[in-house]
Amino acid sequence: MELLHLRYFVAVAEELNFSAAARKLHMAASPLSQRIKDLEHELGQRLFDRSTHHVTLTDAGTALLPLARDVLEQVGAIPWKLAEATKPQRRTVFLGIPAGVHPDLRERVNALAGRVRDEYELKRWPGTTADLVQGVHEGKLALTLARLPVTDPALEQLPVMTERLGAVVPAEQFAGRESVSLAELTDFPYVASPEEIVPAYFDQLDHQLSELGVKKRIRLTNTGYGGTSEIISSGEAFSISMLDEKSPMHGYRLDNVIVLPFSDFRPQLDTGLLWRRDRTDGDLRGLVNAAKEIFADPLTS
């Protein structure tokens, strides 16, 4: 049995959808399905009940899932456990920083770096939430700030900030306004930045907007947050982003773009600090304990 078979099994078990699991694994669904069949043949057990519309775990699959996760966690822990065994007295560790982190959170990161400087050299590493979470899971990053929700059972989460979100709209159409309602935006397409750069929360927000009557969409690819601002500036659409003027996300705004609070809707983006549970009592004990103290009281904006 190969580790890859267990990785494939866990991905399908978590998604209960072969297509979604294949996307997560960056492979096609057909070879993934064949690998699962190979594993079932090797184990002599059917792991999934498959139908046209549903995939469910069998009793054998349910029993295998925690075993497979444990094996993968043990293998994933090898790099940082080896690093711990050969570490120098003062270690260089990395903390992930997603785009648009509020300056108040950055102050706390600086405070953490100062608190632990005798034991750790804390450096920042940029990336998307998905990539940073994966980096912590694999032991490449010690900690990361991440846009919630994050559903990785291997990681512990500490909520550190809640940011209120507002409507990013063309300034000309909404000049002089102090707020806007969703009802006023139903004729505007909602423009979402490329999914590879936005947090998972915005997928939930997209569905929520649809349920509340905002049906039109513009989906951008191969561009950044600046591309979203270009579309809005032309008067063609609206989006949703941080309301606080101090947020670095306001740096992407063009002249004909403003951010207004909603009068009938209150979306918010939560940020958490994440680390591997199994490192709390190991090589990161001092760092995690200091982080828990410094980030103990969640911020709001």
From TrEMBL:
Gene3D superfamilies: Periplasmic binding protein-like II, Winged helix-like DNA-binding domain superfamily/Winged helix DNA-binding domain. Residues 1-58 form the HTH lysR-type domain. Pfam families: HTH_1, LysR_substrate. Keywords: DNA-binding, Transcription, Transcription regulation. The keyword Nucleotide-binding does not apply. GO terms for cellular component: protein-DNA complex. GO terms for molecular function: DNA binding; DNA-binding transcription factor activity. Coiled coil: none annotated. Belongs to the LysR transcriptional regulatory family. This is LysR family transcriptional regulator.
